[in-house]
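re: ur question from yesterday

yeah so i grabbed the chain u mentioned. its 134 aa long if i counted rite. heres the sequnce exactly as i have it in my notes:
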Amino acid sequence: MMNNPGSHVLFAGAIGAALAAQAQTAITDLEGMLGVTLVAQLLGGTAGTSIVALVQTSIDGGATWFDVARFDFANTAGVKYANLSGTVSKAITAYAALAAEGVNDGLVGDQFRAVITSVGTYTNTTLSVRIEAR
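ran it thru and got these structure tokens back, copy pasting raw so excuse formatting
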């Protein structure tokens, strides 16, 4: 049985001045999770250059973080999503940090966080990154 199922906010806020890999507070106590849906939504998107919302998981209490999904936005509003499964049988795979719009499926720990990076100065722009743990 999963601890702490349901919807959680990894990040929700205004994007203004440039952010350099700003790690957010992790959602913890997700032991027993079998899958996760991640949704990133950009509203506005005015004037800036790029926004990256990187979602990471940890399997060692937050000492080490692994990239599991990367959402890339320019200056256009939009919604993007990714589904990850912790039950997929996979071959041994070498871990690699994610490039644009990448996903590392099958890597599901008991903690998740968002790391936000933006380039340029945005106006009237908000970003939300949410997780539905199941």
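noticed a couple things. The chain has a mean pLDDT of 92. also The chain has no helices and eight strands.
anyway ttyl
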